[in-house]
Amino acid sequence: MHESLDPELARELNEKPLPPPVVPIFDIHMHSASPQATAAYVRAARKYGVVGAVNMTFGGMASALREHFGDFFVPCGWPIWQHGKEEPPDWDWFGQEWVDGLTEKVHAGMRFIKTKLVPRPDGPTPIWLDDPRLAAMFAQCEALRLPVQVHAAQPDRWWRSKLKADMCGPKSAYLDQVERVMRNHPRLRVLSVHMGSSPEDLKYLARLMETYPNYHIDTSATKWTVRELSAKPAESRAFFIDHAERICFGSDLVVQEGAPDSYYTSRFHVQRTMWETGVRGRSMIRDPDADPDGPYLNGLALPADVLTRLYRDNARRLLAEVAVEAVSKS
């Protein structure tokens, strides 16, 4: 389902085009589909200065996208342990399959894997991130310096309104599993998506940044991120400046068949406005979880050097440090 835009504010997409960004942007988190549908994402991305992306995809789709878009996309593997999917019949076999296949997948071009371990609407995740059966896979990721994207929790407002707390447990339990994995695997490079699942609590994120040198976050889930950071723009700006080396640009755009270009351009427009300007106003993306008179967009006007790291350098470093030479020798 395509989310609608505020019609007046959506005119900005055509009437007030943004200037080129300070550096080309790399989107570290999106979900592709067929090449035909993904073309709309690529058109919007290029319009806003985005020159590449890490995409979650399955099967032979990565090669099909490569045929259509060259090296625009960097593949991200996705072991399916997520809400709404059927559980593997044998977790031990499933985990070992990924251990055995990681080297081959990296050799074929994969540069990330993703894990999504959020609760189901009526109960907890079927397996925790620090389950001993997954430890060998994370150890292999350490050896290959293969970064792991982690989606650990949902927005606070979502937790209160859409989940059964008595069955799912507290949000803190899902965040704690990420920290346990980082303690167990200190060399594992983690990208915790959606602002670490906690844009509501920047002090928590700052503690993780200071405690775990391989912990990174991205700005994906545009509505959620913009809503929560706009509620505290001064604190948010200071956080981005203090931790500029560990925050990556991400859209979390999910390519959908038949979606209008504005579905994609709106996310890029809102995020770039948020990071580059000091605007005080409304977001063009309708947000059912916002306050009644919202959603607000209170920009952070980040310095150019912070934007350079956010838009390009941090993602480039994460991707470049994958130990391809270790793969070649194996």
Task: State the gist of this model.
The chain is of the alpha/beta class. The chain has 16 helices and ten strands.
What does the main sheet amount to? Answer: 8 strands, parallel
Distance between the termini: 45 Å
**Helix proportion of residues, in percent?**
40-55%
Low-pLDDT runs: 326-330
Proper CATH architecture? Alpha-Beta Barrel
Cα shape: globular
CATH class annotation: Alpha Beta
- Secondary-structure element pattern, one letter each: HHEHEHEHEHEHHHEHHEHHEHEEHH
Structural class: alpha/beta
Looking across the biggest beta sheet, what order are the strands in?
1-2-3-4-5-6-7-8
Task: Please provide the count of β strands.
Answer: 10
Rounded radius of gyration (Å): 19 Å
> What fold name goes in the CATH topology slot?
TIM Barrel
DSSP helical segment count: 16
CATH superfamily: Metal-dependent hydrolases
Percentage of β-strand residues: 5-15%
Which properties best describe this structure?
globular, two-stranded antiparallel ribbon, TIM Barrel, disordered C terminus, alpha/beta, 10 strands, single chain, 330 residues, eight-stranded parallel β-sheet
What is the fold's blueprint, element by element?
Elements lengths: L6 H4 L1 H4 L9 E7 L3 H13 L2 E7 L4 H9 L3 E5 L13 H17 L4 E5 L18 H10 L3 E4 L4 H7 L2 H4 L2 H14 L5 E3 H4 L5 H10 L3 E4 L3 H9 L2 H10 L4 E2 L12 H16 L3 E3 L13 E3 L5 H17 L3 H6 L1
Parallel strand pairs: 1-2, 2-3, 3-4, 4-5, 5-6, 6-7, 7-8
Antiparallel strand pairs: 9-10
Helix pairs in contact: 3-14, 5-6, 12-14
Written account of the structure:
The chain has 330 residues and is α/β, with parallel strands linked by helices. The protein has a single domain, classed as Alpha-Beta Barrel (TIM Barrel). The chain contains 16 helices and 10 strands. The strands form 2 sheets. The protein has an 8-stranded parallel beta sheet. A two-stranded antiparallel ribbon has the order 9-10. α5 (91-107) runs parallel beside α6 and α12 packs parallel to α14 (261-276). The longest helix has 17 residues, at 91-107. It is globular.
